[in-house]
Amino acid sequence: MNTAIHPNVETLRAIYADLTRLGDHAADDIVLHTAERELCIDIAGRRAVGKEAVVAKEIDLIRATGGTLVMDVEHITANDHFGAVFGVLRAQLGGETLAMPFCGLWRFRDGLITEHWENAYDVTVVQAFLAGKTGSAPT
After folding, report:
1. What pTM did the predictor assign?
2. Which pLDDT band holds residue 46 (cuts at 50, 70, 90)?
């Protein structure tokens, strides 16, 4: 049994330690399927295409939380083709705190990330938090 840590696990650890580093490990044609994709009427809002757009999307999310966004990783698994990361998304905004389980799914090609699916346990709660509507159930 091989007990070595797969290089794609190390890549995912680096990204979740500093979300601004996603571009360091992304293919130029990366596609990000946003967490809010099911809530978007506009198809363009469901995903970001290309390294520049994907990195901008992540930086916008960090900015939207006032720089408080932390992805507490609980478990990472990966092989040459796919990776999965489980954890808790944490942020503070306007005196409110968000703690939401997430599952990030990743697809790799030749060691670079080509696709990422963001999955929050309840994206409506995340969207309400980002809109400053915490403390009430999303409608």
Report:
1. 0.87
2. confident
